[in-house]
Structure formats: structure tokens, C-alpha cells
Design a protein that fits this description.
Strand order of the largest sheet: 14-13-24-25-23-21-22-12-15
Number of helices: 14
Pfam family, one: Pkinase
InterPro entries: Kinase-like_dom_sf, Prot_kinase_dom, Ser/Thr_kinase_AS
GO molecular function: ATP binding; protein serine/threonine kinase activity
Organism: Streptomyces yunnanensis
Radius of gyration: 28 Å
Number of domains: 3
Protein name: Serine/threonine protein kinase
Shape: globular
Length: about 650
């Protein structure tokens, strides 16, 4: 359970395990898969871990899983995730673990910055107490790292015993852990002991306080492994008040490291000078508590949604870093402003009857009215109009049109597309360049609601529409010309290689840039658990169009050999991200859900007027009333993932 993000159930995932209905898939854990599920007995949310194996499950794998269940059942601590149920002898062995909707230390440091010294002592006390409990049960964790420490408001939880073993199994495979937080003896494939866990705790606390692992910065895995094996540390930046706590834990010789109980004693001694606080709000900075609160809010919303309907959607709850403003505001904008725009031509949305009334200007008054009458002062259903070419072009279009037309004609004559078979390029392509374009899906304004102190009142449902794919121009048959001469420029470009490497099921770092294109210009494959996994590829086409709808689109590319690739992509929504929306009557209207924008930006592309921030991604069964309120302001929601989920947003 090293990742609290909820992903869609795949075709090879069951819908029920034991007495638990599966809602989505969490990150892989150790030797299995981990799902978030709901108990059919009491409706409680749990994390269900299963044994992952291709084909028949071997007796050896069953014995290992049974041993893991047995070890985990030994532990009952407020600082670990408890095992609630298990069946090691089922056709697909499983165990149900306490579900903790909280970010990890790794996510908190990445998104909210490093932690003050006094708060590090508080975290250290909780994790050290967990290790004391494990070691008393003769269990060595072997994989203590920031990703395996969740931090809800009531204190840290040490999770993922997938590679924990009793003391009679002392060998550790390095691939099961994270090198930067592994002890030197583990990195040398030697025996792991309780002191190994203490070293990993010290490395984790250093990362929490400084924002990096305790080694010289390097991107070379082999070099990092060598540094860890030799214990060559770089402790620059460690606050002096944390030296007595962390430095002894990082001793190269295991015999020189303190026991977890001693680490606990030292941490508590430092906390004695502070008022007693049992919850994180008393120790943690506001940015940390804010992120923790968002995780807990989504956990509560998921718990209240009821039923066992699987969302089959990516419901990652963690914040992600916004796109770099320099890339959005300079490179993309310069390219977009200097290139001809090809306007999208969306089909007219079919309006649905709405009983929504225009709210009064004062938010407090409107909120009061909402609770007094039905259906309440919901935000009017936005009915986006097809964008006009004038609204998305800059400057005068008269002379610029003829200049662009002349350039296109010249390029076509030089390129001679009729001499190449299978051409599927965009205007301006040449035989030595590649092109990509977005087929962005726009969604109507969705459901609007005014949030007051007591909740929100929802309006009418949203209408969605998508722009049809632009037709491929058919060149006029030319006069006979000599056979083409092969050109050396047909060697695949870097973009060609990037597009050809993408497969269905991959996740890529890419998003619509708001100016009619993509950023970056070619897809970069990333792990689907990564913070920058903005798009998931549903299929890869050589021709044809991709499915359309909110958050769906096509990223197509014409290679130097005139072959085409069309990546059918779906946006992966996460709490904290922002996207762009148009204006409709002074409020958010049609949104391009494939865009990603800096939430704190003070500029948007000319086509848009609003920056919308995601506050939750919920199952459709939860309803819009489950969206987090924004007191005194309207909130908006869209149906995404083909109507299976609700995207809750507010104006950033």
C-alpha cells in the first residue's frame, strides 16, 4: 500500500474477493496487487491485497503469502495498518488490511516541502514506535522509506509488510526496496537485522527534514548503490537540532546504531518542551495539513458514497505539481502565436430543460435561499456555444490568412504529397518533419452549485460535446512528375521514435497546452503511478478517429516517412490539478479537460476565461452533493471516465 491513488479496475481484475466488492486498484504491493474495496457485511472500506501470479499459483507462492499473513496478524498497533481478514487458501489468496486515506511522507515532501525540526521529532516518534512493535514480534520490516510511511492527522502509519520476514529469513533482495533508503549491509546483500530498519528510519527522517536522501546527488543507479554500500553520506543541510536523533541512526556499522526504543526515547524527550498535541495540526505546517485534509475528505466521500459500484476510474487523491509556467507561457505560446490556428468545430450541444434559476449576487443570501426552497438556486446549466474562429485568433485575420495560404501552397508544391503513399499530415508538414495535433474533448459547464457553510445545492446536469476530427485534405491530382528521389531525411526523428514506442495501456507525460497543441510535443512514457502521468493511452491507431467525450482525445503524429500514429488518450484526473474553461454568462462554461494549467497563473489563453481546480474525483453514485463545498462560492462538477465518475471543481 505504498500509493493511495485509486486506479481503474482492469480487465484481468476481479470485481469481488471474499466478502469485499472491489472499487479500484491501488499501487502494486510487494508480491501482489492491492485494491480498495467495500465490505459487503458492514460497508467499511478496506485495502485488499492479493497474490499476483501468472497462470496457476505455485505451492511456494502460497506458502510465502500464508507466511506474510501470519506475520502481519502478529501486529496490532496504532502506528501500523492492521490486518482485518484473510484467506491464504483461496483460489486467489488475499488479505484485507485497514484502508488509510492519507499521503505518504514522500508525497508530502514532494508537494508541500520539507518538515520543521520539531515536527520531524513527532514523525520519528510514531515510526520508531511502529518498529518497536514489529521487532518485539520478531519481524524485520526491511523496506522503511518515505513511500511506506503514511501520515493521517492522528500520526504516522508504517505500512507494506510485503517483504517483511521473521528473523529466520534474513536475506534481502535489493530490488524489493529503494536504494536510497537501504542500509549498507542490505545493499551488499548481507544479513538484515533490526539495525537495518533503524538505518532506513534515519534516511527517511533525513529526507523528511532536508528534502533529499542522505547521499550525494546522482542519477546513476550503480553509483548510488556504491555510495550506499560504502556508507558515503552527504548530510549537508541537516538542522543542528536533529543531529543527535538522525546521525546515530546512519552509522555505517550496525552495532553503532541505536535500538528503535532509544530513537523513540530521544524523540519524545525533544517533544517534552512542546504542548501536548495528539493530532498533526498541532505539529505540522499548514501546507502539510492541507494536503492531508484533502486525502481524508476524499476518503470520507468515498465512504459515504454507499453501494459497491466500482468507479472504474483513476481516482488518485494526491496533489501533483502544476506545469512549469515558463513552458506554458513562453515556448508554447510563441509557437502557437506564430503558427496558423485550425479552429475546432464542435457539434452543437443538445440542451436539456433546466429549472435552475439565476442566483442572487450575495453568496450568503443565495446559500440561505438554497436551503429554503427546491430545487434551490443552482448555477444555471452552461450551454457552451461552438467557438468562433474570431475568438481564438489573434490580431487581424485578413492579410494573415493570405500570407498563411501562400506559405501552405509553397510547402505543398515543394513537398509534393501526391508522390508519397499513405500521407496523413497536417498543413505545413514536410517530408523531414513531424507534426502533432490535439483532438481535444470539450465538456459543457457541468453541474454548478453554490456552497455555503451548510453544504451545496446542485443544479441541472451537464451536456457534453466534442469537436469532430478535422478532415484530411485531399490534394489536387498533379501533373505527371518524375519518380521521387529517396531523401536521407526519412531517417526516423526523435519524435517518430517517441510515438512508435507508445503502446496501449501506457501512461505518458503530456497534456493539451491550451493553444491547440500538446506539451511537450512528443509523448514521454512514465510509470502510471508517477505524478506526471497525465494521460493514459487507450489504443494506438494507424488511421481512423479516437473516441470522443469529456477527458478523451487523440494525439496524432505524422512521421517523416508519412506514416501516421494516433494515440487515443484519456486524461488522468487528480486532486489539486487545474484545467481551463471558457466563460458562459460570466461563469465557467465549456472546459477542455485535456488541458493542464498552473493553478496560480494570472494569464490564460485567449480562448479561455477560467482556471478550474479539481477538489475531488468521486464515483458517479456519490452524486454532486458529495463534492467538497467551497463556502460562499460556486462549485462545478463534470461527469468523466465515460460517466462513471464525477469531477468536483472550484474556480482557482
Amino acid at each position: 500500500m505504498t500509493d493511495t491513488g485509486i486506479r481503474a479496475l482492469g480487465g484481468d481484475d476481479p470485481r469481488r474477493i471474499g466478502a469485499y466488492d472491489l472499487l479500484g486498484r491501488l499501487a502494486p504491493g510487494g508480491m501482489g496487487r492491492v485494491y480498495v474495496a467495500r465490505s459487503t457485511k458492514d460497508g467499511a472500506l478496506v485495502a485488499v491485497k492479493t497474490l499476483l501470479a501468472e497462470g496457476a499459483i505455485s505451492d511456494t507462492d502460497r506458502r510465502r503469502f500464508a507466511r506474510e499473513v501470519k506475520l502481519a496478524r502478529r501486529i496490532d498497533s496504532a502506528h501500523t495498518a492492521r490486518v482485518l481478514d484473510a484467506d491464504a487458501h483461496a483460489e486467489r489468496p488475499w488479505m484485507a488490511i485497514e484502508y488509510i486515506p492519507a499521503p505518504s511522507l514522500a508525497e508530502l515532501v514532494r508537494s508541500a516541502g520539507k518538515l520543521p525540526a520539531h515536527a520531524v521529532h513527532w514523525v520519528a516518534a510514531g515510526v520508531a514506535q511502529a518498529l518497536v512493535t514489529l521487532h518485539e514480534a520478531q519481524i524485520i520490516h526491511r523496506d522503511v522509506k518515505p513511500q511506506n510511511v503514511l501520515l493521517p492527522q492522528d500520526g504516522p502509519r508504517l505500512i507494506d509488510f510485503g517483504i517483511s520476514h521473521a528473523n529466520d529469513m534474513t536475506r534481502t533482495q535489493l530490488t524489493l526496496g529503494t536504494i536510497a533508503f537501504t542500509s549498507p549491509e542490505q545493499a551488499r546483500a548481507e544479513h538484515s537485522t533490526r539495525a537495518s530498519d533503524v538505518y532506513s528510519l534515519g534516511a527517511t527522517l533525513f529526507h523528511t527534514a532536508v528534502g533529499r536522501p542522505p547521499y550525494p546527488d546522482t542519477s546513476d543507479t550503480i553509483r548510488l548503490l556504491t555510495l550506499v554500500q560504502r556508507g558515503e553520506l552527504d548530510l549537508k543541510g541537516l538542522p543542528k537540532e536533529l543531529g543527535a536523533l538522525i546521525r546515530p541512526c546512519l552509522a555505517a556499522d550496525p552495532k553503532d546504531r541505536p535500538e528503535p526504543a532509544e530513537v523513540l526515547r530521544r524523540a519524545l524527550a525533544e517533544l517534552d518542551g512542546f504542548p501536548t498535541q495528539q493530532r498533526g495540526a498541532g505539529w505540522l505546517p499548514p501546507r502539510w495539513t492541507s494536503l492531508i485534509g484533502e486525502y481524508e475528505a476524499q476518503g470520507r466521500a468515498l465512504g459515504k458514497s454507499g453501494g459497491a459500484e466500482a468507479p472504474t476510474a483513476d481516482m488518485r487523491t494526491r496533489k501533483v505539481p502544476p506545469p512549469k509556467p515558463t513552458r506554458v507561457y513562453t515556448e508554447d505560446r510563441k509557437r502557437a502565436d506564430g503558427a496558423p490556428r485550425r479552429p475546432a468545430r464542435p457539434k452543437s450541444p443538445t440542451p436539456r430543460p433546466s429549472s435552475a434559476r439565476k442566483p442572487t449576487p450575495a453568496p450568503a443570501a443565495a446559500g440561505k435561499s438554497a436551503s429554503a426552497s427546491a430545487p434551490g438556486p443552482a448555477a444555471p446549466k452552461p450551454s457552451p456555444k461552438p467557438p468562433s474562429t474570431s475568438s481564438s485568433s489573434s490580431g487581424s485575420s485578413g492579410g494573415g490568412f493570405w500570407v498563411v495560404l501562400g506559405i501552405v501552397a509553397l510547402v505543398v508544391m515543394l513537398w509534393k504529397p501526391w508522390e508519397h503513399t499513405g500521407a496523413d499530415g497536417s498543413p505545413g508538414d514536410t517530408s523531414s518533419s513531424s507534426a502533432s495535433s490535439s483532438s481535444s474533448a470539450y465538456a459543457g459547464g457541468g453541474v454548478g452549485s453554490l456552497s455555503s457553510g451548510g453544504g451545496s445545492s446542485s443544479g441541472s446536469g451537464g451536456t457534453t460535446y466534442s469537436p469532430p476530427p478535422s478532415p484530411t485534405p485531399s490534394p489536387t491530382p498533379p501533373s505527371p512528375s518524375p519518380s521521387p528521389t529517396p531523401v536521407a531525411s526519412r531517417t526516423p526523428s526523435a519524435d517518430d521514435v517517441a510515438f512508435s514506442a507508445v503502446r496501449a495501456g501506457d501512461c505518458v507525460d503530456g497534456y493539451a497546452n491550451g493553444y491547440g497543441g500538446w506539451s511537450p510535443t512528443s509523448p514521454d512514457r512514465v510509470d502510471c503511478q508517477a505524478a506526471n502521468a497525465y494521460l493514459r493511452v487507450g489504443s494506438v491507431l494507424g488511421s481512423g478517429t479516437c473516441p470522443s467525450g469529456p477527458g478523451l482525445g487523440g494525439w496524432w503524429h505524422t512521421a517523416t516517412d508519412s506514416s501516421s500514429v494516433n494515440l487515443c488518450v484519456e486524461r488522468q484526473f487528480r486532486v489539486g490539478q487545474c484545467f481551463l474553461a471558457r466563460s458562459n454568462g460570466g461563469r465557467p462554461g465549456g472546459a477542455n479537460l485535456l488541458t493542464l494549467w498552473s493553478c496560480g497563473a494570472n494569464r490564460v489563453p485567449r480562448e479561455f476565461s477560467f482556471i478550474m481546480q479539481i477538489t475531488a474525483v468521486l464515483p458517479a453514485s456519490a452524486g454532486t452533493r458529495a463534492c467538497p463545498p467551497d463556502p460562499g462560492h460556486y462549485t462545478y462538477s463534470w461527469q468523466v471516465y465515460e460517466g462513471r465518475s464525477i469531477l468536483c471543481t472550484k474556480v482557482a
